[in-house]
Amino acid sequence: MSVKRLWVIFMARNREYFRDRAAFGWNFLFPFLIIAGFGLIFGGKEFSEYKVGVFPLASLSHPADELRVPAAFRETRYLQFVPIASLEEGLAKLNRHKIDFLVKNDPAGHEYWVSDTSPKGYIIERVFNDSLRSSAGLPAAGRKNAIQGARIRYIDWLFPGILGMNMMFSALWGVGYVVVRYRKNGVLKRLKATPLSALEYLAAQLLSRVFLLMFSLVVVWVGCDLIFHFEVVGRYLDLLVTFLVGGLSLTAVGVLMAARGVSEEFTSGVLNFITWPMMFLSEVWFSLEGAPRWIQGLAQFFPLTHLISAVRKIMNDGASLMAVRLELAVMLAITAVCLVLGARLFSWNR
Amino acid sequence: MLLEVSHLIKRYKDLLAVDRVAFAIDRGTCFGLLGPNGAGKTTTIEMIEGIIAPTAGEIRYKDAPRGAAFREEIGIQFQQTGLLAFLTVFETLQTLQGLYRRRRDLTALLEQCGLGDIRDQMNDKISGGQRQRLLLALALINDPELLFLDEPSTGLDPQARRNLWDIIRDIKAQGKTIILTTHYMEEAQALCDHVAIMDHGRIIARGTPLDLIRQHCEGITIVLPEDGFDGPVEDVAAQFHRVNGNVEIQTTDTHGCLRRLMAGGVDITGLTVRSPNLEDVFLNLTGRKLRA
Lengths: 350, 292
Fold this sequence. Notes:
The complex is a heterodimer.
Chain A: H1 3-19, H2 21-42, E1 50-55, H3 63-66, H4 71-74, E2 79-83, H5 87-95, E3 101-104, E4 112-113, H6 119-135, H7 154-184, H8 187-192, H9 198-228, H10 236-257, H11 264-281, H12 293-299, H13 303-317, H14 325-345
Parallel strand pairs in A: 1-2, 1-3
Antiparallel strand pairs in A: 3-4
Chain B: E1 3-12, E2 15-25, E3 30-34, H1 41-49, E4 56-61, E5 64-65, H2 68-73, E6 74-77, H3 89-97, H4 106-112, H5 128-139, E7 146-150, H6 158-173, E8 177-182, H7 185-191, E9 194-199, E10 202-207, H8 209-216, E11 220-225, E12 240-243, E13 246-251, H9 254-263, E14 272-274, H10 278-286
Helix pairs in contact in B: 8-10
């Protein structure tokens, strides 16, 4: 193992990354756009909103005067009232799930329409009927115990997921795809004819990618934080260490992907086959709480699951590195397995 | 001997790509492997280079099996090879040089290979001839003792080819040993001390270019357009080949041959005469043109 040769390849790869303007810009723009997009859509509001259509109603500027629904219903949080011109229009929107519930703007009948297949509609129906009960003066059936919890904004929850996802794409494509392209066009063959060893080459790819991942992580984090002011409960150093271990494990998967193959098309198929389930099942976008057991089990094989889980614990709950040691251990184990397999299977030739 | 190859075999499933190839190369000489595309030249030298593993056979470098030092001491110009992306010509050389312990002064190397003017251009923004010279420079980056050139002038225009030959002669003059593959016979004649002609994975002839021509092509070659013949060519010539609409007759008795042609009523208006070359050697050995 020659550190000098490793360094030469490490630097060449870094240079390539910073000079490839198109890919370089995209690496930073992509996570930022996603975060900015979500920021615009939700504007800091809650993710789940229930849309209630009210007809006939031309516009809605003073809900208290214009909405002739029970006061308790009107004041329910997370309900968004949408003015609708006619019953026909309301039914069409209900059918297409543009609204979840449709109610006539008439205090006398309390007539409403709801789709039998819509879970949100079902919830609103229960709330609506309950509000009729309370406006009739009937007492509440249960006894309430309120908890005082720090609310986590959706964007604070989403952010680690987006960063992790960006890391995953960058790690898998940046190593897997690039090395396969180099094998196809003969660059690897050229390198094989030099004293460079496979281990040196792969180690340089790994280190270069991890370095670049951390670099773009910091840039994206700082950029997004300036706009969205994320709340980090835990320590930044712990976050950095966790991302480093996560980046290492994702890149190791990339090294394994890069071990064989000369077809860019085939490799991109395989990469998509791996990255998409990882994106959906690693709780980037939504929690897997309540998902089938086997899906939850499958997700445990993805390094991204553990990375995001650990980062959220640190960022949202203030966990320490000790508290996320299980996640760190799993990611390190994945790293070791992928690197050993990747180095074993590696081929320079077509 | 700097390099000795014996009983080298490479088999791919049903295909015997290289069949019991053997040769030895002296220090400071240029050895040429000649043959048509698909003859097994590249497979042979890639086995020697250590790029692919032989099915059987022995390769000895400096009287011993190739060791770790071998890769430090050889330089290779591949037929087709990509370059590390987003690097300038100079950085490409610098990067590859970093992988070796032995090294050459880069400025002198740029000068030798005529790359001085384009040293700061990106390596994917240069012409075919410049690229070929860059590949040659990469092969020389570690000041190698043994240089492999796999079809170095393929795709070059005649001027760029002459230019490349000059560089290769220059390298040879520095005492380097060179193994060269080519399907251009004139290239082999211009550069090689010894040649081996390959066809279908086997060496079918070997020697100095001059010896091979003397052995396999006697006399001179008379070339005539085929439509100048009224009757069958066999009636007027004993040894001939049809090549691209021409009849090429090889003879040691020029006078007698011409007399027979004229007596046979052949129109000799378009006649040319030339001395035989390695191209004719291949033609005589296989009955086929080298570059069909």
